[in-house]
Amino acid sequence: MELAIVEIGNPILREVSEEVSASEIKTDSFQSFVDNLIETKRIANGAGLAAPQVSVLKRVFVVENIDNPRYPYMPNIPLTVVINPRITFLSEERYNIYDGCLSIPHLRGVVDRYAEIRVEGLDRHGSPLDFIVKGISTGPFQHEDDHLNGILFPDKVKDSKTFCTIGEFKNRYEHDFRQEVEALIKKYGS
Ligand code: ZN
After folding, report:
1. Domain spanning 11-188, CATH architecture
2. Which pTM value belongs to this model?
3. Which of 42, 60, 92, 164 has its CA 20 to 30 Å from the CA of residue 5?
4. For 116-142, what is each residue's pLDDT tens digit?
């Protein structure tokens, strides 16, 4: 079932979400919620979606990017559901990315993200997750994790002159940004 995505200005996006208990993960209602979160992300062509974006203040997000028309230059990321995530930065290295958000229609802006991260947490069945992500693919994980703490990408845009609509991004900036993305993929393999 498709869920309603709330947009910037809705105070729920500024709340800090609560951890999900092991017993709740096993419930049918939580499992259907995860299914709905995935379905909603896919319908909206998001690279990720976090529970607060559908008005649920629980620490769970989904990341998946497969031949995504919203982010055609991004490498593919298989479907990953993370519950109670903990992200640690494995180096100080950062890169710039034109970020976007389903809760902020049409807007892009440049944010810097850590280039090497470790993601720990639980999968949708409550089993431990622990993996490393490198390069441009770290962006969606950091973006979705921020949602669980009430942080939206414009909060992290250092130069407000980089804000642009998706249309202006495609016309003016995508060409150069693609080259930066290709360099990152070459460096990190993802
Ligand atoms: Zn978002």
Report:
1. Alpha-Beta Complex (3.90)
2. 0.96
3. 164
4. 999 999 999 999 999 999 999 999 999
